[in-house]
């Protein structure tokens, strides 16, 4: 799955304690949204340990598929290559640290993980989640790197926005992401999470990057597809909810406004949410 393509610094790699080999897995490879000097630094084992410790302190567990797990995988690869030592930490965590920011949202809190002041993941926690709160001294807290499994509770009898987006990946997964698709995905993510701003590294951010890159791609085979972005959408959303008619209308409006001919893509995001809204409405009538 391509999503945003990992990037490596174009110049000479910074020299690390174990040689700074060209093949090192850097922060920019793991978290494509980070920039500056942090993007060029190889992920070190103690960086990952700090992040996982912070996740455990704040959320009561290390998040499966979260930033800490991603950093651990990268650090393990770097240690095997001899790029970093087992007890090594980069100055990104040793000096600037891993911190946490919590923002109150309706029904819960949005927790954001930072490395050296740059966001690397978010997690939407309900008020009644059985997790521990607080910040670790010096290391801060933790976040969710793109999943809603421990976040909002949803009605399992109805089709959710995340499931409708996954249906788009099946119905139109081979289609390159266009600006209209990105607008529809942004609207869908906002309706699912209740957040006005894009989630860093979330579906909308990935779709917008893909649409911009696709506009410059010379060959179709080089373009990022809807399937690349929307596969496992439910796991990537920081919150989810059953699709309602208002959600489908908002998404359809966003897609149509950004498409040249003003029509929705067959099997696309708007079409999938419209179908889901109808299913959910019909099921409610049937249950009565």
UniProtKB/TrEMBL annotation:
Keyword tags: Repeat
Region (Disordered): 1-26, 129-148
Domain SMP per the UniProt entry, residue ranges: 25-80, 159-217, 224-282
InterPro entries, alphabetized: LEA_SMP, LEA_SMP_dom
Record flagged with keyword Transcription: no
Superkingdom field: Eukaryota
Signal peptide limits: none
Bias (Low complexity): 1-19
One Pfam assignment: SMP
Record's compositionally biased regions (Gly residues): 133-148
Family stated for the protein in its record: Belongs to the LEA type SMP family.
UniProt-recorded name of the protein: SMP domain-containing protein
């Amino acid at each position: 799955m391509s999503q945003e393509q990992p990037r490596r610094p174009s110049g000479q790699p910074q020299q690390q304690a174990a040689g700074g080999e060209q093949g090192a897995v850097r922060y920019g490879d793991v978290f494509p949204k980070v920039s500056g000097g942090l993007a060029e630094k190889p992920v070190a084992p103690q960086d990952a340990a700090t992040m996982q410790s912070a996740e455990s302190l704040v959320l009561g567990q290390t998040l499966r598929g979260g930033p800490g797990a991603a950093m651990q995988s990268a650090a393990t690869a770097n240690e095997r290559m001899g790029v970093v030592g087992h007890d090594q930490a980069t100055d990104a965590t040793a000096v600037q640290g891993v911190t946490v920011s919590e923002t109150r949202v309706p029904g819960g809190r949005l927790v954001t993980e930072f490395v050296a002041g740059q966001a690397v993941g978010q997690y939407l926690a309900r008020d009644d989640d059985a997790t521990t709160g607080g910040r670790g001294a010096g290391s801060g807290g933790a976040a969710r790197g793109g999943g809603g499994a421990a976040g909002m509770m949803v009605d399992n009898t109805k089709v959710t926005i995340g499931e409708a987006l996954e249906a788009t990946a099946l119905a139109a997964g081979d289609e390159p992401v266009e600006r209209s698709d990105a607008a529809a995905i942004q609207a869908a993510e906002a309706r699912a999470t209740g957040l006005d701003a894009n989630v860093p590294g979330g579906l909308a951010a990935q779709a917008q990057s893909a649409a911009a890159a696709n506009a410059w791609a010379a060959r179709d085979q080089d373009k990022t597809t809807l399937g690349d972005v929307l596969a496992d959408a439910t796991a990537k959303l920081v919150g989810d909810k059953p699709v309602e008619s208002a959600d489908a209308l908002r998404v359809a409006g966003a897609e149509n406004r950004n498409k040249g001919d003003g029509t929705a893509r067959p099997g696309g995001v708007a079409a999938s949410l419209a179908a889901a809204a109808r299913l959910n409405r019909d099921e409610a009538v049937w249950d009565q």
